[in-house]
Each structure stands twice: as structure tokens, then as C-alpha cells.
Write a structure and sequence with these properties.
The complex is a heterodimer. Chain A is an all-beta fold. Chain A has no helices and 11 strands. Chain A is globular and about 35 Å long. The N and C termini of chain A lie far apart (about 35 Å). The chains are: A mainly beta, B mainly beta.
């Protein structure tokens, strides 16, 4: 199975801050990475696919980059509604695997 | 608009079987490339992929659960059913079904709201 190592596991930031989460894959997965947002009690929601492609309707303050084994996810200006847990996920090879998650809250 | 909704028992006794139904709309499972997957999530943990069924009936399972899992589809009802045999306390959590996006490998883009399963006698 492909291991996705995500960091940090938790993050406190102020409104308006730039926030970055990283994810490292245990093998080359080209750009088959997605980033999901999950708010408490809700299903995960797809924000980014193919490492950097924003889903329709997702605010442009969210972005992703990377290829191969190193990936990152950035929120350029943190908003109150961004408080959630974020997961990276690889879909290059079954089984689909997730990072451990990053819990983001307001400082 | 794609929509999925999970249904099934909220409480299951250990050693029993769990049967969950995913009822979907907004896409056709017989369409080439289509698929529906199942995931689960334990409290405080990342989601975990369980199984996937493709438009042509091909099935894929998480290897550690392969002997206990069965996924089937009923295209006339727009439903996909997941069965997990010999359920244990470690199987408790929220179970989600999700839509596989056409042409993007194993990317799942729309998730159901989830259904919570408790395992207890």
C-alpha cells in the first residue's frame, strides 16, 4: 500500500494567515493526489484533484502543488469557514490511501 | 447533480453481518468508466477505502477485509450494496459511499452524508 505521510497533524493559525500542509507519498504517484476538507459531523468534500486542480466552486484561496512524492496544500488567507480537518489522498493505485489528517483551528 | 445516500442499521451485534445500501442519482452506473466506492471512518481517524464496484461488475476490495466484504449493484434501483460479515467492535464508525469520477482513475468526487454504525451486544 502507498503510505501518505501528512504534516502537521494539527495547526493553529490566525484569520488571514497563510497556511500550508504537506504530504509525502511512499512512492511516485505522479499527480494522482487529491485534497479533501472535512468539517465536524460532515462527509469529506473534494477540494483539489490532480494535485493542483481546483474543484468547481472552491474558493481560489485554496491551492495545491507537487508531483512525484511531495505535495503541498495552501490556504492563502485563512477564513473562519476554513476550520476543518484536511486530508491528502492518493488515487494512483488501489487501495486508495489517505494522510493522517491536519486539524486546523483558529489561534 | 450527483447525489448519494447511505442507509442501513445503526446498531449491529458482534459476529453478525452488516448490510449497507447506497442509493444514488445523477449518474448511470452502467456507463463505461462509472463506479461506486465505499469508505469508512473511525472517530478521530482518516477515512479508509473498503471496496469499489465498476460499471462492468468488476469488484475491488481492501485486502485485509477481502474475506468479509461483498459489494454488489442493482442498476435498476440505482443502488450499490456493501455487506461486511462477522462484524467486530473495530468495524464501528461512519460508512460512506462515493461516486467515481469518469476518466480520472480512482478519484471519488461526491460522497454521501454517511451512516453511523455502532457494534455492540
Amino acid at each position: 500500500d502507498i503510505l501518505m505521510t501528512q504534516s502537521p497533524s494539527s495547526l493553529s493559525a490566525s484569520l488571514g494567515d497563510r497556511v500550508t500542509i504537506t504530504c509525502q507519498a511512499s512512492q511516485d504517484i505522479t499527480t494522482y493526489v487529491s485534497w479533501l476538507q472535512q468539517k465536524p459531523g460532515k462527509a469529506p468534500e473534494l477540494l483539489i484533484h490532480d494535485a493542483s486542480k481546483l474543484e468547481i466552486g472552491v474558493p481560489s484561496r485554496f491551492s495545491g502543488s507537487g508531483s512525484g512524492t511531495h505535495f503541498s496544500f495552501t490556504i492563502t488567507s485563512l477564513q473562519p469557514e476554513d476550520i476543518a480537518t484536511y486530508y491528502c489522498q492518493q488515487y494512483d493505485t488501489l487501495p486508495i490511501t489517505f494522510g493522517q489528517g491536519t486539524r486546523l483551528d483558529i489561534k | 447533480q450527483i447525489s448519494l445516500k447511505e442507509s442501513g442499521p445503526t446498531l449491529v451485534q458482534p459476529t453478525q453481518s452488516l448490510t449497507l445500501t447506497c442509493t444514488f442519482s445523477g449518474f448511470s452506473l452502467p456507463s463505461p468508466g462509472a463506479g461506486v466506492g465505499w469508505f469508512r471512518q473511525s472517530p478521530g481517524k482518516a477515512p479508509e477505502w473498503l471496496a469499489l464496484i465498476y460499471w462492468d461488475g468488476d469488484e475491488r476490495y481492501r485486502s485485509s477485509l477481502k474475506t468479509r466484504l461483498t459489494i454488489t449493484k442493482d442498476t435498476s434501483k440505482n443502488q450499490v450494496v456493501l455487506t461486511l460479515a462477522n462484524i467486530q467492535p473495530a468495524d464501528a464508525g461512519v460508512y460512506y459511499c462515493a461516486h467515481r469520477r469518469l476518466g480520472f482513475g480512482e478519484l471519488f468526487d461526491n460522497w454521501g452524508q454517511g451512516t453511523r454504525v455502532t457494534v455492540s451486544s
